[in-house]
Amino acid sequence: MRQWDSQSIIRNAGEKHRPMKKIRIMIIEDNRVLRDGIAIMLNEQPDMQVVATIGTGNEILLKTSQKKPHIILMDLGLKSFKESSVVGSIRKNMPEVKVIGMGFVPTQLDIVEFVEAGALGFILKDATVKEFLGTIRSVSQGIKVLPPPLTGSLFSYIIERAVKEGKGKVASAVRMTKREREITALIAESLSNKEIAQQLNIATHTVKSHVHNIMEKLALHTRLQIAKFTHDENN
């Protein structure tokens, strides 16, 4: 399996590509302005051709079968369906099609689910044009690509471990202490730092320190995200 590669984005974007065979692309994005803008940008490239654009999750498999794209750009924020399930269906029925997720701030759980389902790349919607095009070209060549800000981080490590072990559990790839796991479980029960401190018979500032470490290890930013993470891990 090839490793996730962000540096290739910059290298590939600057290279000249043979226009003899264009990369056929389908865009799934519910924001019409963004969808049309991406399509115009891609069609201006000598080695790319947008063969279909879809605003919702309806008839994705049918459209994919009809248009036969090499690459599908899929918005991670669509509300009408569970994206990872669609990616899994596409990869199962049309394994030659490569899927790239798009999002502003994808969570580590979103990324892991997409990787396990078969997605080969991710593009942040605030990426530069050079990074955007480079990601598409890299994935079309079979290279798995994470956005540069995520590569080399714990985020990337979690993905590699979770996929390699095939467990589908992010926590299995993160080394958390027994105390951190206890606090994570209590946060999921909506307990405050003071309540957690009382229950575990430790100082409140110690709880705050553990919460900070938990957020660092899991690449999370709020207690609500910790609670959601715990719920998802246990279900």
Fold and architecture overview:
- With 235 residues, the chain is α/β, with parallel strands linked by helices.
- The protein has 2 domains: 7-165, Rossmann fold, CATH 3.40.50.2300; 175-233, Winged helix-like DNA-binding domain superfamily/Winged helix DNA-binding domain (Arc Repressor Mutant, subunit A, Orthogonal Bundle).
- Helices cover 50% and strands 12% of the residues.
- The protein contains 11 helices and 5 strands, in the order αβαβαβαβαβαααααα.
- The protein has helices at 7-14, 32-43, 60-67, 83-93, 108-117, 129-140, 154-165, 178-188, 193-200, 204-218, 223-233; strands at residues 23-28, 48-54, 71-75, 98-103, 121-124.
- The protein has a 5-stranded parallel beta sheet, with helices on both faces.
- α4 (83-93) links the parallel β3 (71-75) and β4.
- α5 runs parallel beside α7 and α8 packs across α11 (223-233).
- It is elongated and about 65 Å long.
- The model has no long low-confidence stretch (mean pLDDT 77).
Q: Briefly, what is this?
A:
With 235 residues, the chain is an alpha/beta fold.
List the SSEs and their pairings.
Blueprint: H1 7-14, E1 23-28, H2 32-43, E2 48-54, H3 60-67, E3 71-75, H4 83-93, E4 98-103, H5 108-117, E5 121-124, H6 129-140, H7 154-165, H8 178-188, H9 193-200, H10 204-218, H11 223-233
Parallel strand pairs: 1-2, 1-3, 3-4, 4-5
Helix pairs in contact: 1-6, 4-5, 5-7, 8-10, 8-11, 9-10
What percent strand? 5-15%
Helix content: 40-55%
C-alpha end-to-end distance: 28 Å
Taken from the alpha-carbon principal axes, the silhouette is elongated
CATH superfamily of the largest domain: Response regulator
Overall CATH architecture of the largest domain:
3-Layer(aba) Sandwich
What's the Cα radius of gyration? 20 Å
CATH fold-level name of the largest domain: Rossmann fold
For the biggest sheet, the summary is: 5 strands, parallel
Q: What is the residue-mean pLDDT, rounded to a whole number? A: 77
Low-confidence blocks of residues? none
Q: Count every helix, treating DSSP H or I runs of 4 or more residues as helices.
A: 11
